[in-house]
């Protein structure tokens, strides 16, 4: 599983972004429903995740992070 660091969280709207450890990959969107224990994550947490592609979304926004799980702080 790829790893990343949480860079932004909007708790009120239930989403955020993470920055993959692979420097070539763009930041990925994630939704609270795809995070194990969303209420406990904070910016800077290290996570592992899976990537889901949705070809119905506009170019550049087709990938999102799912199965996001904290692996360290």
Automatic annotation (TrEMBL):
The lineage of its organism: Bacteria, Pseudomonadati, Pseudomonadota, Alphaproteobacteria, Hyphomicrobiales. Residues 1-68 form the CSD domain. It comes from Bradyrhizobium ottawaense. InterPro entries: CSD (IPR011129), CSP_DNA-bd (IPR002059), NA-bd_OB-fold (IPR012340). It comes from the Bacteria. SMART domains: CSP. PROSITE patterns: CSD_2. This is Cold shock CspA family protein. It holds the Pfam family CSD.
């Amino acid at each position: 599983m790829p790893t990343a660091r949480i860079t932004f969280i909007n708790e009120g709207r239930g989403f955020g972004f993470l920055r993959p450890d692979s420097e070539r990959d763009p930041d990925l969107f994630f939704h609270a429903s795809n995070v194990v224990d969303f209420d406990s994550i904070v910016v800077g947490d290290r996570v592992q995740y899976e990537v889901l592609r949705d070809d119905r979304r506009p170019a550049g926004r087709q990938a999102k992070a799912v199965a996001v799980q904290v692996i360290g702080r």
